[in-house]
Amino acid sequence: MSCVFCQIVEGTNPGDILFHDSRVMVFRDIHPQAPVHLLIIPKKHISSVTRLTGEDENLLPHMMTTAIEIAKREGLWGKGFRLVINSGQQGGQLVPHLHLHLLGGKQLSGQLG
Ligand code: 5GP
Ligand code: ZN
C-alpha cells in the first residue's frame, strides 16, 4: 500500500489541493501550525531529501520556486514566510515522502530547533 502523500497524489486520500503540475503537488497541511501551512511534494515517491538522485535533477529547485509562487498567491510576499524540510528521525520527519513546508500568515517563532 502506498504512502499517505502518494494516496493524495493518486486521489485515494482527499487533500485540499491548491496546485499541481507534472512533477509537484501543493496541498494544505491537515494539522496547520500557522494560518497558511502548505506542503509541496514531488508526485514521485521519494522518501526523504537524502534520497534524491541524479534522476531528480532540478526537482528541489522546482519545489522551492513553486512554493514561492504559491506564497505570492496566498498573499505572503509582503509579510514573509518560512520554508522547511524535515529529514529523518532527529529532523522531525513524520511522513516518509519528501515534502517542503510553507508556513506563514502570522509572526513565526524564532525557535527552529
Ligand atoms: P513532517 O513532520 O514529516 O515534516 O510533516 C508531516 C506533515 O504532514 C505534518 O505537518 C502533518 O500534519 C501532515 N500530514 C500528515 N498526514 C497528512 C494527511 O493525510 N493529509 C495532509 N494534508 N497532511 C498530512
Ligand atoms: Zn509517497
Strand count, sense and barrel status of the largest sheet are: 5 strands, antiparallel
Q: Provide the CATH topology.
A: HIT family, subunit A
- Residues in helix, %: 10-25%
Output the CATH class name.
Answer: Alpha Beta
Q: In order across it, which strands form the biggest sheet?
A: 1-2-3-5-4
Tell me the fraction of residues in β-strands, as a range: 15-25%
Low-pLDDT segments, ≥5 res:
none
CATH architecture: 2-Layer Sandwich
- Count of beta strands: 5
The number of domains: 1
Q: What is the CA-based Rg, rounded?
A: 14 Å
Q: CATH-wise, what's the superfamily? A: HIT-like
Structural class per helix/strand content? alpha+beta
List SSEs in N-to-C order: HEEEHEE
Give the distance, in angstroms, between the N- and C-terminal Cα atoms.
Answer: 33 Å
**What spatial form do the alpha-carbon principal axes imply?**
globular
Mean model confidence by pLDDT: 96
Helix count equals 2
Could you characterize what this model shows?
The chain is α+β, with helices and mostly antiparallel strands. It is built from two helices and five strands. It has a single domain (4-104), classed as HIT family, subunit A (2-Layer Sandwich). The protein has helices spanning 4-10, 59-73; strands spanning 17-20, 24-28, 36-42, 81-84, 100-104. β2 (24-28) and β3 form a beta hairpin. The protein starts with a helix and ends in a 9-residue tail after the last strand. The site of guanosine-5'-monophosphate (5GP) has 14 residues, from β2.
